[in-house]
Amino acid sequence: xxxxxxxxxxxxxxxxxxxxxxxxxxxxxxxxxxxxxxxxxxxxxxxxxxxxxxxxxxxxxxxxxxxxxxxxxxxxxxxxxxxxxxxxxxxxxxxxxxxxxxxxxxxxxxxxxxxxxxxxxxxxxxxxxxxxxxxxxxxxxxxxxxxxxxxxxxxxxxxxxxxxxxxxxxxxxxxxxxxxxxxxxxxxxxxxxxxxxxxxxxxxxxxxxxxxxxxxxxxxxxxxxxxxxxxxx
Length: 233
Description:
single chain; mainly beta; Jelly Rolls; 2 domains; 5-stranded antiparallel sheet; 4-stranded antiparallel sheet; 4 helices; 47% strand
């Protein structure tokens, strides 16, 4: 990436730091030479997006200024394949017509970068979070009920009955099994409770994963487990 480009658009960040970031992603010299970049501003935040090989790094200028140190994050597409998440699809961007327009490196489509859209170039995005293992002094627990406190009643005309799914892993997240879906509430059903009952014995290495692909709001507040200890002694 040419040094003048980085320093002109992002005062305080140098091409050497970007090269170091690329090195952490194990990018080759050819990939760095062919890196693509664009900048944009959104809600008072200023971002610079660098796609190097199969990695996309984003420099957050506003957060960096507030924290007093350089703040980066990495982006990937929300569309998965057999190898997991793929490289972020937005490779070029421009502000026009009051919108942030970005080009798709897969289809050539032009999309809008916005928080109001829950799909990626019309494809559903997978959103999920995973718990850490249920470590309890080496003992298992017996689960009477697990309840996820999150925004409910988010159904709409396009997705009238959105679902959130729970599955689990007993091998440190390598594979997940036994998916169970629960409704998040149709439009206006704000008192919907999302609970999984009778899950039985939970070993101390189990990880729970909660995920969804329906294009609706996805805001999680807390996770509660009603359980008792099953002593190994």
